[in-house]
Design goal:
The protein is α/β, with parallel strands linked by helices. 47% of the residues lie in helices and 10% in strands. It starts with a helix and ends in a 7-residue tail after the last helix. This is SGNH/GDSL hydrolase family protein.
């Protein structure tokens, strides 16, 4: 019994020592080139804008799909692209937006069909590893020890990857791909993949997501903001495969969603040649065409005010 207690105590002591020594070996989070570390830069960019702005919300379709500067110039407002990853989840993204929105802002949600309300917990934890404030976006409970252990676990995994070269960083999915507005740029000169990722059979009807969007609108009623809902760009054959359920989802959205809807399900459907590596990620040509179409939607909404676009 004494021997068992000794070994158990020694193991716990070594484990705790390792937890506290990890920061000496881990990467500098502030200067990290990791893709999710860009959340810091996006929040910094948003905080620097002191007048009414456009906030783009959504997943990685925004990273790969728009020229934000062109949109901002067309509308005559500063703009920040907050898009990172659809699997962060709609609840995470909306909670994040609450910290960014100011009076007279215009919020455009470009939502992938695969985005769920809850999101992926592991990816959310990774976001919190680089941007600790984001823990409140997906977990409202006070879990100090749990978060600490989660952070140390991620630190250990990162150290192993870095020191043993288990993962080679793709520059397209790195922090340095983002420009000042928050758009991804390093994929633009590259050729896309012949076989696109993120293909799926869509089954959900988005009732939970619609409820969350309406609840968000209610919390924003005291602020003079504009909330616009848009579909994300989508590859043509995937749209045709899922068309029946997408039409049903759209009917529900038109009936139930209180946000202003600025696009139809097929408005931003493009052939495969316009995509980079996913059925939601546009290449240079697709990005240019999609940006122009999105600007046209905004011009149609606002009338001649933005005809200079």
């Amino acid at each position: 019994m004494r021997k068992f207690l000794y070994k158990s105590s020694l193991f716990i002591a070594i484990y705790l020592l390792a937890l506290f020594l990890l920061p000496l070996l881990e990467e500098n989070k502030e200067t990290s080139d990791a893709f999710m570390a860009a959340m810091n830069d996006k929040h910094m960019a948003a905080s620097k804008i002191k007048k009414p702005k456009i906030i783009l919300l959504g997943g990685s379709n925004l990273v790969f799909g728009v020229n934000s500067k062109q949109i901002g110039e067309a509308v005559g407002m500063p703009i920040v692209n907050m898009g990172l990853h659809a699997q962060l989840g709609l609840e995470f993204i909306l909670n994040e937006a609450k910290n960014l929105i100011r009076d007279n802002d215009v919020v455009i949600l470009s939502m992938e069909h695969l985005m769920t309300l809850e999101g992926n917990k592991e990816l959310q934890s990774l976001a919190a590893y680089y941007y600790p404030e984001s823990r409140t976006y997906y977990d409202k409970e006070e879990r100090g020890l749990s978060f600490f252990l989660e952070d140390r676990h991620l630190s250990f995994k990162k150290i192993i990857d870095r020191w043993f070269g288990l993962k080679e960083l793709d520059e397209v999915y790195s922090r340095r791909t983002f420009n000042e507005e928050g758009d991804g740029t390093l994929h633009l000169p590259k050729l896309g993949l012949k076989e696109l990722g993120s293909k799926e059979v869509i089954k959900e009807h988005k009732k939970q997501e619609i409820h969350a969007l309406n609840a968000f609108l209610e919390t924003m009623m005291s602020q003079n903001i504009t909330l616009l809902f848009s579909y994300a760009p989508y590859e043509q054959s995937e749209y045709q495969k899922n068309r029946e359920v997408l039409d049903k989802i759209h009917e529900t959205i038109k009936e139930k969603l209180k946000w202003e809807i600025i696009s139809e399900p097929d408005d931003f459907v493009y052939p495969a040649d316009y995509f980079f590596d996913s059925v939601y990620h546009l290449n240079k040509e697709g990005r240019s065409i999609h940006t122009t179409r999105l600007i046209e939607k905004l011009k149609n909404r606002y009338g001649k005010k933005y005809d200079k676009a």
